[in-house]
Design a protein that fits this description.
Keywords: Membrane, Transmembrane, Transmembrane helix. InterPro entries: ARM-like (IPR011989), ARM-type_fold (IPR016024). 71% of the residues lie in helices and 0% in strands. It is built from 35 helices and no strands. The protein starts with a helix and ends with a helix.
């Protein structure tokens, strides 16, 4: 009750005075002077009086706002907006407010562009332990809320080196600081080159060491509160904060907390580690997240694999004889999943680095046994691990030097087909089905894999191309069928009568792009439609080149209502719709050109293409996409861009002229 009285006295009084003064100035119904000359100055005097009251109220409110009461209101609302913990959130915000105010008094221009994230970065540069911890806490909190602070940290190599060094501290009191630094380094890891930071691997590897001995000390640390209240005006500020917390409604904070929980869930899926910690595995998970992102760079992969102590720690879960039993608990499953993600990145490294690691895994009987056992799990909780096991086994199967048994490869392929084509089990997640399909696509490119396994499912895969099915599954099915057509002997009549009509129907029914200004969901649908169109065109070209004759293709076109030049018109329309500087549009235009060049071997189609002005449309596309094509040529060594790099649009144009 007393808090409400204080609040009403401090804030309510000035507000009432301002309101009354404004009302009287607007109304000005002071009455008449009834001809009394002594009241002639009454109206101007009252106007002046109310103006003075108004000015006094405004000045008082300004003073309140710039001093503890007003500052406390800003701090309380900011803590709720940013979902900061009470333990240190208020301390940090008060320090930020007082520091900014002091700089403003000294030099108002110095606070231009000042933000809380910049202030937190400045604290990291401090020599004070408390300042460092405060800065790390805040930056980690911002990162968990999906803020991008890379532009503030990456330009300073010394700053990054300090963050990395913090990971290697082993004192029990530094646990929270290591966790916060781990979250920040994970945020930056994709842009970090290990060779530029001496001792980086050693510091990161300390995160993967057994932390059982640290658990006791961590629990002791949890009982200690290292936040300290300041004296003087800062203490007064905290008093006002306590008053406002009791007055302000709790509903707002509860809503923000719920939003914060949702953010935490999203960040968990993105593997941005929570800086609050609380588990013995927390630092291990952070270390694995950092390594996974570092491994996106080939040179980092080489540095990681060359370290004799780090690689065995990464592989430890895979080679453990208790992995299957331990993975039944969520904490251990998270560690295994993180370890598998790092391994998958490392084994895909080009050259000897990836090859040697693939051999090491393939020669580990326990490791292969664990991967196969995980693959056979059917419980929903193990689906993340199933995806990782599929990815790793597929990479091993694609490398002939691993000598993976044919039985293992065929079992893997059967499992992939079983999951991808399953339509009855609701427990199988979309991500698992998509992963099964994509890894199957890669596996079929290996000519040594027995194609008879996948040929039995040819009809089911063809049915997936139907428009009634999920677009993602249709794209993957088209990719799988393309590789089957390229690497397996198929019944040509079956391809002509069942598969080709389904593809032509898909090409014909693809919708035009939605108009500009569509929402994000519309943009996603447009991208998926383009990718599906690309897959259908690519599959058409493979079938045309490898399995059927020109007459068979012409017959299929006629039966699908695309005769008399209608298919040529469709190809031209697709080219014109994709005259844009995007990689997927470049790929689509090239595919249309290649299909056209093949079809022009038949004289009747030559006339159709000339009459429709197809070469002119292709020439226009070439001019628009020439710069992009030059860039793709240099990036063409990457797997996804190989097909786009060649042939050149100019070469296709020559064939059509």
């Amino acid at each position: 009750g007393c808090y409400i009285v204080v609040f009403l006295y401090g804030y309510g009084g000035p507000i009432v005075c301002i309101g009354l003064a404004l009302w009287r100035i607007v109304q000005r119904d002071y009455g008449s002077n009834d001809g009394d000359d002594t009241k002639a100055n009454l109206t101007p005097a009252l106007d002046l009086f109310y103006c003075l009251i108004l000015c006094q109220g405004v000045l008082y409110m300004t003073w309140l706002w710039s001093h503890p009461p007003g500052g406390a209101f800003i701090i309380v609302t900011s803590r709720q907006d940013y979902n900061l913990p009470r333990k240190w959130g208020y301390i940090w915000l008060v320090d930020y407010l007082f520091d900014t105010r002091a700089k403003c008094w000294q030099d108002p221009a110095s606070i231009q562009g000042s933000t809380m994230s910049r202030y937190a970065v400045d604290l990291i540069d401090s020599e004070s332990w408390d300042d460092n911890l405060s800065g790390l806490r805040m930056l980690a909190t911002f990162i968990r809320q999906e803020a991008d602070v890379r532009s503030l940290l990456l330009p300073s190599r010394a700053r990054i080196q300090k963050l990395i060094n913090t990971l290697g501290w082993r004192a029990s009191a530094s646990r929270e600081m290591r966790e916060a630094a781990g979250c920040i380094v994970a945020h930056l890891a994709s842009d970090i080159h290990l060779a530029q930071f001496p001792g980086a691997i050693r510091c990161i590897s300390t995160l993967l060491q057994d932390e059982a001995t640290l658990t006791y000390w961590w629990n002791c640390d949890q009982k200690q509160d290292h936040t300290h209240l300041r004296t003087g005006s800062r203490s007064t500020m905290h008093t006002w904060i306590n008053i406002l917390e009791k007055i302000m409604p709790k509903a707002r904070e509860q809503e923000v907390n719920r939003q914060g929980d949702d953010d935490d869930d999203r960040q968990h899926k993105k593997h941005v580690v929570d800086v609050k910690g609380g588990g013995c595995n927390e630092l291990i998970l952070q270390g694995l997240t950092i390594l996974e992102r570092l491994a996106s760079d080939q040179h980092n992969c080489m540095d990681i694999c060359r370290n004799p102590s780090l690689l065995p720690r990464i592989m430890a879960p895979l080679c453990s004889n208790t992995l299957i039993q331990g993975a039944k608990t969520s904490a251990w499953a998270d560690v295994v999943n993180g370890s598998f993600k790092v391994l998958y990145r490392l084994i895909r490294c080009p050259g000897w680095t990836g090859k040697c690691l693939r051999r090491d895994i393939a020669t580990s009987e326990q490791g292969i046994s664990n991967l196969e056992s995980i693959l056979d799990q059917s419980n929903e909780a193990g689906q993340e691990l199933q995806m990782r096991a599929m990815e790793i086994l597929t990479e091993l199967a694609l490398d002939s030097s691993t000598n993976l048994t044919m039985e293992t490869k065929e079992n893997l392929m059967k499992k992939q087909l079983e999951i991808f084509l399953d339509e009855e089990s609701a427990a199988i997640s979309k991500d698992l089905k998509a992963t099964a399909g994509r890894t199957l696509t890669f596996l079929i490119t290996n000519s040594k894999v027995n194609c008879s396994v996948v040929k039995d499912y040819f009809g089911h895969l063809t049915e997936l191309l139907d428009a009634k099915n999920n677009t993602t599954y249709r794209m993957i099915a088209a990719q799988v069928l393309e590789n089957i057509c390229a690497h397996c002997d198929l019944d040509k009549e079956c391809v002509k009568d069942t598969l080709l009509p389904q593809i032509l129907t898909g090409i014909q029914s693809n919708k035009r792009e939605p108009p500009e200004g569509a929402d994000d969901q519309g943009d996603d649908e447009k991208t998926e439609t383009k990718e599906l169109q690309e897959n259908f065109l690519s599959l058409t070209l493979v079938i045309y080149d490898n399995l059927i004759s020109i007459d068979d293709f012409d017959d299929a076109i006629q039966k699908n209502g695309l005769g008399n030049g209608e298919f040529v018109v469709k190809l031209k329309t697709i080219v014109e719709e994709n005259c844009k500087e995007t990689v997927i549009s470049l790929r689509i235009v090239k595919l249309c050109g290649q299909i056209a060049a093949t079809m022009m071997m038949r004289s009747q189609y030559t006339e159709h293409f000339k009459n429709q002005g197809f070469a002119e449309s292709l020439s226009k596309a070439k001019k628009i996409m020439s710069n992009l094509e030059s860039c793709v040529l240099f990036a063409g060594t990457e797997l996804r861009l190989k097909k786009i790099a060649t042939p050149l649009l100019s070469e296709i144009e020559k064939e059509l002229n």
